[in-house]
Amino acid sequence: MDTECCTSPSTLDMNKLPIVRIKLNTPSLRCIIEVILPGLLENFENVSAEVVQCPDLTQPPFNLTSEGLCGDENVFDIGDVTNFIPSIKREKLYNVKDLKQITGSDPLVIIGACAGPYPFFGVDSECVENFKMTGDHVKNRTHVHMSMSDYNAEYFHKSLPDDEMRFSLMANFFSSNGFKGEVLKIVCEVRKGPLSFSTCISEALSKHFGDEIIALGGVILIENGKVKVHVIKPSLAKIPIKSEKELGNWLHFIELSPPSVGVGCIVSHDPGLNLRRQHFHLYTDRNEGGHYHNDTEPKTIKYTGYFGVSKQFIKID
Length: 317
What we know:
317 residues, mainly beta, ten-stranded mixed β-sheet, 13% helix
């Protein structure tokens, strides 16, 4: 399962693909707090938001490759869900190290959600990107979750070695220098509305800023309450898919018990680029994880999120 297929496609050079760069307004963290609080309070019973010094994210339960979320912040949307429809485009194979040249960041820290490197495992997978590159030195602590069966939801966890930096099909990444500094801390407990934690933040930003793009990236700790995630069924690669809605038929849905951690991005507005406005993948110290949907125990749920604000939005391919 961990041997690369001899017929795998060449990895695309993202520097040679279509790139749209959008310089963003970066409102202060305190301004963002004022904007999102009304929406959060409509959806959760207990809410707090404040500006804090970022905790050391290299420590449990986060275990990221860098301490913080600050310095040269960018949000990326790479590929999109049309790479699954009507059939999977295997040629959409990328390498995260290309983002170092695109951003000019050193160190470059990447966290977020993407599809795992199909040629490495031979199946499609949910990938939790957790990557740092300083000069030519790579630290890769990326998690991958996959299913080997269409008929039961048992799934497997793998970690990528430092020299496996590819991902497939689509990604939503937050990049930074990984420096410590001030971040936005949001705590929400007891969900009373229909929206997930990340969707609620996106909708609150959209309501205030309208067509202006505000982009956040960071990490979510789910301290209490179970959450719903998915991993992809192996047969997805063999069945024509007519729509994104139909794509749901080829997913295994699973409940994760707390604690769990997620990394990803939140975007307030899509200016016609077919963006995914919120996208988080979760992982645990029990080797569980997948694509985050929403919590399933709203009366006990507790989210704590730490976010940086992006200065630039970059759409690739």
